[in-house]
Please model this.
Amino acid sequence: MRYPGSLTIGSTLVVSGVIALATLAGEAKAQTFPTRPVRLVVALAPGGPTDTVSRIYAAKLSELLGQQVLVDNRPGAGGSVAGEIVSRAPADGHTLFSAANGTIAIAPNLLLKLPYSVSRDLTPVALIGNSPFAVMVHPAVPAKSMKDLLAIAKAHPGKINFGSAGQGSTSQLSTELLKMLTGVNMTHVPYKGAGPALIGAVAGEIDLMISGVSTGLPFIKQGKLRGLAVTSRQRIKVLPELPPVADTVPGYEASSWYAVMAPAATPRAVIDKLNRESIAVIQSPEINAKLTSQGVEPEALSPEQLGEKIRTETARWGKVVKAAGVKPQ
Model:
């Protein structure tokens, strides 16, 4: 007996056959992929951390894939220019998106008219690594530890000025997260980029800056800024003397992380091949050493694990954006 909406044995076999053929077609594409140079569209301008990490990754990936991986910097609109280009590209694995969490997980909470959806129009390929921040103060600030800093902030509400790379930047939100978890009141001073903010910190224009280890390290080593802590869960190789913020503020963690994504309809077999080769890239001793020297700690994740990281981070930073009163634009 047939019931309404039920499948006959014949139709079931047809559906199964179609699925099998699609799977085989995807696997065949993966075996021949790539058939031409791969375009890696980078969300930010040349010279910054995202660009540096992308170029280190692309050079080794070119070697493993046997095709050139060409870095194409497309800055603008918080990285959304690059994201839109990739979201509309042919879904064959030859156009990839390289961006930091500021573009992937924070921008969706800040940009009202984002021209694409990270969750709908892009699919995770691989994580390159995580880059923790350093908590730094001007030498005139009488704080030698996070405990000291928080004590000063609580005793003098609003008196400590903290700088950032701009409204809604990871450096601002990392400090807003600290405020949210500790209840301290500090005053935000936005700059036009992390570089100017660090220069402002060195000049004493601001008291506090939470910024990337790779950019802050020279100032710490030269004694122009005093490092108090790192924002990762554990101590890091390049600044082993600095404890994690979480030792003083349980649950605190913040970092930049760098990921590669592809157009949403890219065949799964191609995604899997790119993921395997990406893991081989970051686990090779030479690339691992290069990334570590830039303050980036490589981490291998499957596409599913990266997808979960993106969802979790997007939700987490959305709460911080709301608590900080940053208005989406």
In short: The two ends are 59 Å apart (CA to CA). The chain has a mean pLDDT of 90. The beta strands are 38-42, 69-73, 95-100, 122-137, 161-164, 187-190, 208-212, 226-230, 255-263, 297-298.
